[in-house]
Write a structure and sequence with these properties.
By secondary structure, this protein is mostly helical. The chain contains 21 helices and four strands. It starts with a helix and ends in a 6-residue tail after the last helix.
Length: 407
């Protein structure tokens, strides 16, 4: 491998870094562990797909709300066990695609179902984003300095999205974090105790066990049933990402190594990440955009990025710095990101020309939105489904049961 490839590979991690660490910071998981599981998950994906697809796997935004709620209701260990169980969804889809072909995805998970489910993921997180902008302590009392920092982070992120050139436009999250963090330092709102107290070299799980951000996974049926249906959304996102990289590289990765292999690789990577205390993995479109921009589609670049991610996980001072990022900095960026997730859901309906004048489609979309955003709960005894997961399952059932008429 050439020295230039190592530099380009490291750059791929730089592109993914902002979103990668943001998910654990928002959910209370350890960002250093997330770095490790992203790198290891990418290597696992390459092993299963025979190192033929140039994609990087890291923290999935789809699981932010389930992780937050899951930790509150079931605890860290049971939540990690539920997240690890998401591999079941990927295995089922992988087998179905292998046996029936990609058309099975379109049959059971059409845009009229996946679009509103994606919208629910974004809209459900809206109160979280707004709440994070109010003050530096995480409370509800309004601090105008916090709002200023949040809006500044948001403005810089938007500016990079709209006007950034080259690789710069692929790292808007990282730019927003740096800008908001700098302003917070100037305002004297950053405490560096976490950096001063951290070692240069550390094993992430030692500190995570001490501060409660990691527990050994427990397979609690309630947590599994709560989280499992949520995996449908990132699984569908996976299909879109593989199609995107196939178009960019002019190579049909849906056929070779096959969508069934890429789905399985993503699922096993998610299982590994969750067992070791990181957020579930998903393919990163930012990195796909980066390799498309520089026109380098060698999967070895992702191997380099993965190795760098693993090495950085043991750099204790980096973890300390990440823990000093003020809440309003992340809140400002989240306003844009969560809104964009909802907008992607709308785009899924629009781009696939879903006819909303049909009563059938209107009913499916309406019920998914209200069940998901309103936290509808159905079940009996210990068995309960709610929120995003319930909305996804109801959407699938309605799509199969309602007659497909012209009205």
């Amino acid at each position: 491998m050439k020295g230039n490839d190592i530099i380009v590979g490291a750059q791929m991690l730089f592109v993914a870094f902002g979103a990668l660490v943001l998910v654990p910071l928002l959910t209370g998981l350890d960002p250093s562990i997330a770095l490790f599981t992203a790198g290891a998950g990418t290597l696992i994906f390459q092993l299963i797909t025979k190192a033929s697809v140039p994609v990087f796997l890291a923290s999935s935004f789809a699981f932010i709300a389930p992780i937050q709620v899951g930790i509150q209701q079931f605890g860290v260990g049971a939540t990690l066990g539920g997240l690890a169980s998401s591999v079941v969804v990927y295995i089922i889809l992988s087998v179905l695609v292998k046996v029936k072909g990609i058309s099975i995805i379109e049959k059971w998970l059409p845009p009229v179902v996946t679009g509103p489910v994606i919208m629910v993921i974004g809209l459900k997180l809206a109160p979280v984003a707004v709440g994070m902008t109010k003050n530096f302590s995480g409370g509800t009392q309004l601090d105008y300095l916090a709002v200023i920092v949040a809006l500044f982070s948001l403005s810089v992120t938007i500016a990079v999205v709209m006007m950034g050139k080259g690789l710069l436009r692929l790292i808007p999250i990282l730019c927003g974090i740096i800008a908001g963090y700098t302003l917070s330092v100037i305002l004297g709102k950053v405490s560096f105790d976490a950096v001063n107290n951290s070692q240069w070299f550390s094993i992430p799980w030692v500190a995570a066990l001490e501060n409660g951000t990691y527990e050994f996974p427990k397979f609690d049926l309630r947590a599994i049933l709560f989280i499992l249906p949520v995996a449908i959304a990132p699984a569908i996102e996976h299909v879109g990402d593989v199609l995107a990289i196939s178009n960019a590289a002019k190579t049909n990765y849906l056929e070779k190594p096959g969508l069934h292999r890429t789905l399985l690789g993503d699922g096993v990577a998610t299982f590994f990440a969750s067992i070791f205390g990181g957020p579930p993995n998903t393919t990163y479109s930012e990195v796909t955009g980066a390799v498309t921009l520089i026109k380098k589609f060698d999967p070895k670049l992702m191997t380099v990025a993965a190795v760098f991610a693993i090495l950085l996980a043991f750099f204790g001072k980096l973890g300390g710095v990440l823990r000093t990022i003020p809440t309003p900095v992340m809140g400002g960026i989240m306003i844009l990101l969560f809104g964009m997730i909802a907008a992607i859901g709308i785009g899924t309906l629009v781009n696939n020309k879903t006819d909303m004048s049909k009563s059938r489609n209107l009913v499916i979309v309406s019920i998914i939105l209200i069940f998901g955003i309103g936290d509808m709960i159905l079940g009996w005894g210990e068995f309960q489904l709610s929120g995003i997961g319930l909305a996804g399952i109801i959407g699938i059932l309605l799509n199969r049961l309602l007659p497909n008429t012209n009205s």
